[in-house]
Amino acid sequence: MIDRYLRTGIFLAPFHALDENPTLALERDMELLQHLDRLNYHEAWVGEHHSGGFEIIACPEMFIAAAAERTRHIRLGTGVVSLPYHNPFILASRMRQLDHMTRGRAMFGVGPGALVHDAAKIGINAADQRRHMNESLDAIVELMAGESVTRKTDWFELNRAQLQLPPYSQPGMEMAVACARSPVGAVASGRHGIGMLSIGGTSDDALKAHAANWKIYTDNARQNGKPADRSKWRIVTFAHIAPTREQAFEEVKFGIDRYTKYFTDVATFPILPPGITDAAQFLTKEGIACIGTPDDCIRHFERLWKGSDGGFGAVLLLAHNWADWPATQRSYELMARFVHPHFQRGANTLRQLSYDIAAGNRGTYSAQSQAAVESEISKFQAAQSKRAAG
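^ that's the sequence the OP posted. Answer follows.
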C-alpha cells in the first residue's frame, strides 16, 4: 500500500480576461469552490490584489466568508494577504473572526505583496515590502498566540494589543508564508514553524529552488526549536486535462494567450521568455504545466514529488481559466476521479486486492455456488415428488 497522502487544492488569484463581466467572473470563482468542495478537494487559497485589472479579488477574507456559507468541507485560506498593506492587529482580529465564522476551516496565508504597483499606490517602496512582512508577521504570530503586544516600527504601532476572541481552531489557526524566488518566505515560515507555499513555477530549475528553500526552512525551524513538518509544505503548479491530449491542447486555446500576455505586460515576472509563440507547448515541455490526460497529470505530480527531495503535503493548482468554464469543470473532475487516488495512500489498493482475490478464486467460488444451487433444486424437486405421491 502506498504510504503517502498528498492533499489537493487550488490557488485562486483569480485571473480573468479584461473583456469578461467582473460580477459574473467573481460568481464563477465562487461556483468553482463549490464544485471543488463536491469533488473532495481539500483546500483553496484566495489571493489579494488591487490593480492590474486581471486579478480582481481585493479582500480574500470577504470572499472566504461567503464561500464558507456555500461549501461544506473544503478548507479556505488567504492566498495570500499582503502584510505590508495592513495593520497587523486589525488583520489578526479579522482572521480570528473568520476562524470562528468558518468553524475552523479558514487558513491564514501571508506574503509581502506580489504586485509592485499595488504597493506603489499606497506609498510603499518595493525594497521595504519584505522587511514589513517580517515585522508584521512577528507581531501577528504573537497576537494569534494570545499575547499582549507592544511594538513600534516606522510603519505601525501596537500598544498592549491583544485579540479579544480565543481561537476556534485548536491549538490555533493554520498559517503559511508564500515563498517564490527569494528565501525570505522560507526563512520566515521556518522561524515560526508555520507552513510554506511554494510558488514561482515547476520547471526543473524551479523545483531545485523549492527544494533548496525547504532546506532553508528546516534549518531555520531547527534553530528556533520548531518542527519541520513536510505536510505543511505546499507546491503550486499548472494543469489542465481532458480525455485526450489533443483535446486538452485545443481547449486551452480559449484563454492561455491572454493569460501569458498579462504576465508579460503587467505581472512582476513573465512566464514566457521572449520569442515564444506557442505557450502551451513551451509550458508543457519545460514542466511548468501539465496539459494532457489524467495519466499525464499523474506523471507531472510524480515529478513534483521526486523534485521535492522527500515529499510535500499538498499540490495546489493555480486556477488560470485557460479553457472555457465547462472544460475547466471537467478538468477538475477528471483529476479528482483519476489522478488524486494515485496520491492518497493507494485509495483503490484495497479495492483492487479484494477484486483480485475474488477473481483468483472465481473457479472455486463458482463451483461452490453452482453446487449449492443444484442442491436446492434437488431438494425442491424431491419435496414436490413427495407431495405428489402423497
